[in-house]
């Protein structure tokens, strides 16, 4: 008898491990990678120009998600152009499409891969005995970044008793559950057809998630710049 597929298959890390990113770069790269995992597949593709790991095109149906992605990539020195397409007949909608500059697509792929795997490892690795205050602070920031991405670009599922997001990426769903725990909020994961619903209870849990996921303060203070991963 064939076994039931596991909710979360064993991940396959990159063949080669890139050098660790410093905390500031990791925070931006991990959040951008989470946004990328929430985004809809591009409506048009150009196989000849596509990179093996990531398409240089990403589309969002919300302007604030596209603007956040553009801001993060700008801080990572990855230029992008943005186009807005309007579709629909009776129900009009906007599609915000970002395209990475051809000269920076290699850097984009490397940063998205490194940011995702390193951020995922920090969050899912569990509490670190004797971890420095800097590491504990940044793991909390990674948890908040994952939820910020899901709330911006995922499918919001808001009911009277819960705040939830629908995610098609199961690894990201696991990161959200763990991220909520890091933020001292219990989260529930329910697997559905083609997607997962990650939710937290209304009340203090919902408020803590929303407060943590609000846009962070401007980066670049002296204390932050001196922090390094490891």
CATH architecture assignment: Roll
Give the strand line-up of the largest sheet. Answer: 4-5-7-6
Q: In CATH, what is the class?
A: Alpha Beta
Report the count of strand segments: 7
| Total number of distinct structural domains | 1
Q: Count of helices?
A: 7
Q: What distance lies between the first and last C-alpha atoms, to the nearest angstrom?
A: 45 Å
For the structure shown, list the relevant keywords.
230 residues; alpha+beta; Endonuclease I-creI; 4-stranded antiparallel β-sheet; 7 helices; 7 strands; globular; disordered N terminus
Descriptive overview:
The chain is α+β, with helices and mostly antiparallel strands and 230 residues long. The chain has one domain (23-212): Homing endonucleases (Endonuclease I-creI). The chain is built from 7 helices and 7 strands, in the order H-E-H-E-E-H-H-E-E-H-E-E-H-H. The chain has helices at 23-38, 63-75, 105-124, 133-153, 170-182, 204-212, 222-225; strands spanning 57-60, 80-87, 93-100, 155-158, 162-167, 188-191, 196-201. The strands form 2 sheets. It has a 4-stranded antiparallel sheet, covered by helices on one side. A 3-stranded antiparallel sheet has the order 1-3-2, covered by helices on one side. Helix 1 runs antiparallel to helix 2, helix 1 (23-38) packs across helix 3 (105-124) and helix 1 packs parallel to helix 4. The termini are far apart. Residues 1-20 are annotated as: Disordered.
